[in-house]
């Protein structure tokens, strides 16, 4: 029964409590999947990607540095492996040719044997991509190529089959009109289809397009949206625009050819944490700090297609004994009698009279 339910889920979401949630949009129901026991904060999901079996396997990167393998056909977790090294949570997961690619916040990118489950195994390759990584993204058309970027960590493109040096490293934009250095904060990265171009969104509400084939390493196009940090980004099915979300739950579509705003969507109640467009249909899935999954139509007519409200806990929280005693104490006290408020005009008259009678020291009557 669980396998049948998992097979027909349309959207998969990872939570901060370590739960993998499968959502069926037609039935408007969600199912929670856990590896074992009760959900734990130590197993918070920080990265998701499809496994080697296409859409039949999901790789789940957790905060405790374990990567779990979930089967959508069987509806259960099939195994896990520990990926040590570096500090911070996973900022990206990928899989190519029987190997697993991981990257953590401190800037350690490692390639592992996918079928080796021993925690003490050494990685096949280790790269230091720089500290403060916010995102590692794999190129769908060239699976052995990945891009990294973060806070004060410029965009870099790496060929895992080549040297240990990046094949492309972005150059920061020129100083601003006050001749001050512009800070770097790449929050998300996407590869544009059928080209070598990349697009990034920044914590300073900028969307930038880079072309490694161009002689210049600075952005070939830059657009800004709103006033708040952009936290997530996804390509539209056509590949000519991106949808970005910021810390205030606002969603907007930006054209990558002219850098103009194409439209906005009613966003989330909290900061946007994840965005994903359907590869062929004009649908956008979004989630954030309000713990609500929304699916929007991004083409005319734009609007909300589905909304998955969070479920309330089945058992009420127990009230501590100290709070119970406090409530009994307040219940035993008598209510204070109501007092009539003084008339406002009369009060103002008294104040004016007092002000007139008040004299400054040393003054005399004329």
UniProtKB/TrEMBL annotation:
Protein name stated in the entry: WD repeat-containing protein 74
SMART domains referenced in this protein's UniProt entry, alphabetically: WD40
SUPFAM superfamilies: WD40 repeat-like (SSF50978)
Major location (coarse): nucleus
InterPro entries, A to Z: WD40/YVTN_repeat-like_dom_sf, WD40_repeat_dom_sf, WD40_rpt, WDR74/Nsa1
Keyword Aminoacyl-tRNA synthetase belongs to the record: no
Source organism (scientific name): Sus scrofa (Pig)
Compartments where located: Nucleus, Nucleolus
Gene3D superfamilies: YVTN repeat-like/Quinoprotein amine dehydrogenase
Gene: WDR74
Lineage: Eukaryota, Metazoa, Chordata, Craniata, Vertebrata
A cellular-component GO term for this protein: nucleolus
Disordered: annotated segments: 300-366
Keyword Nucleus applies: yes
